[in-house]
Amino acid sequence: MGSLGGSSRTNGQQPQTGINNATTADVIVVGAGPVGLILALKLGIQGISTIVIEKHAGILRAPRAIAYMPVVNKQLKAMGMLEPLAKRSYQSRFGPSWRPVQGEAYVECHPKEKVEQLLKAGVKLPPPPPEDESCLYMIGQDDFSDLILEQIQQRCPEHVSVRFQRPCIGINNVPGGVEVMTTDKVPGIHQYNDIVLTAKYVVGCDGAQSAVRQYACIPFEGFTWTNFRFTAADVEYDFQKEKNYFPGGNFIVDPNDWALIARTGPETVFRVCYGEKPDLPDDEASMLERSKQRIPAFLSPTNKDYKLRRLKPYWAQQRCAQTFQKGRILLIGDAAHPEDIISRALESRRKAWLEVANPTSTANYLRLCSTDKDISATRTEFFRKMNTDPAFALGAMAEQYKLLPDTFEG
Fold it and tell me: What sequence ranges are listed for the domain FAD-binding (predicted)?
């Protein structure tokens, strides 16, 4: 494919040369979270011109993702990202655990112990991955985004331009490419310019409320859980020291006080994510007041001293876009590949969500809080097998690898 041509316009956020002046690129990425930025970095390293636009004024500071699974570590390593990530994150080599609100755990998964049990039993296992690829990297989504942005600026600034406070306000498929309209309009300022960018592809990495998906008229299929809303709270409290929790996923099993508790990085700040009734007010003052009763319930009876850093409500959704591609408009994927490979890669990702991520997350939620007799019986059997059958436990933990069955990279 040939170049789409080019022109220039300043975005006011980086030195005004080359890509930072351009309104044309090979790829436009919408969304400057980890997904959008890691895609931009990967493209930039390969010399593919990329413009990233983001509606917020900077990296979004909110309690969002905090763990990056071993399934992506090999790809991050190939990009030269694993070493800098290790320096900024907390590395966990424990598996998940399931626990009551207080008291001894129902299940604690130690992958290394499970492997040793199978080897002693004479089971032949494939060679383990390198140690740096097999651990869980704990780091807040905003901190990881900062790190990727630094890597872009250090390694491929001539190929990637990241432009904040530039929302996507329109998309149009055109022959041989796509047009994306953004604006430099900011609140309180009446003078502004709408800007049309052109590229061979646009990739929407802008979350559940994706403007790219909506402008492309791609429906969301599935449902939103309406019987609960969850609150994500970042808490300064050492759950590892005070309650002997794992740094990774600690699933709290209770019909009312169900939760997920995990470390957010190298500091002793943990994410306490707990369910709430959907009709409770979600203004900041009301949420803060309720948190004074909710959060202490999960702390040690002998130490209730904690500091709340931030909290935010979320709705849980089991939704997936009807398609991940519409012409030159993509919702995920590596836009540097030929079109037939793009289509196969996107369909593979969608299939992984439908067949692995969706049923697994639904089962995890029901396992935490359901009082249904059949689900309770299934939960009891699941815990029994996790504790007594090392092959079953390792298989359950290995489900994540089905999320990336093929990298489509030759």
Answer: 25-337
Query: 266 is written with which tokens?
Result: 């190298």
* In contact, 279 and 234? CB cutoff 8 Å: no
H-type alpha helices, 189-269:
211-215, 239-243
330 assigned to some structural domain: yes
Per residue in 238-255, pLDDT (tens digit) is 999 999 999 988 999 999
Cα 205 to Cα 200: distance, rounded to the nearest angstrom: 16
123 lies in some domain: no
**Mean local confidence (pLDDT), 230-234:** 96
Q: For residue 184, give its domain range.
A: 18-64+140-222+319-343
Q: How many CB atoms are closer than 10 A to CB 257?
A: 17
Three-state DSSP class for residue 263: strand
DSSP 211: H
Contacts of 90 (CB under 8 A, 6+ apart): 137, 138, 139, 247, 263, 265, 266
Q: Is the pLDDT of residue 9 over 60?
A: no
What is the pTM for the complete model shown?
0.87
Tokens, residue 245? 């929790």
State how far the Cα of 10 lies from the Cα of 20, in Å rounded to an integer.
7
CA distance 261 to 92: 14
**pLDDT at residue 132, as a whole number:** 94
DSSP annotation of 285 reads H
Alpha-carbon gap, residue 307 to 377, rounded angstroms? 38
Q: Could you tell me whether strands 67-68 and 194-204 are parallel, antiparallel, or unpaired per DSSP bridges?
A: unpaired
DSSP 8-state class, residue 356: I
Q: Is-contact 26 199, C-beta < 8 A?
A: yes
In a domain, 41, yes or no: yes
Tens digit of pLDDT for each residue in 106-123?
999 998 999 999 999 999
**CATH value at residue 214:** 3.50.50.60
Asked if residues 178 and 147 have their Cβ atoms less than 8 Å apart, the reply is no
Do residues 322 and 222 lie in contact, with contact meaning Cβ atoms separated by under 8 Å? no
Q: Which two tokens stand for residue 169?
A: 């306000």
Q: Cβ(317)–Cβ(189) under 8 Å?
A: no
Residue 242 included in any domain: no
- Overall number of domains in the chain: 1
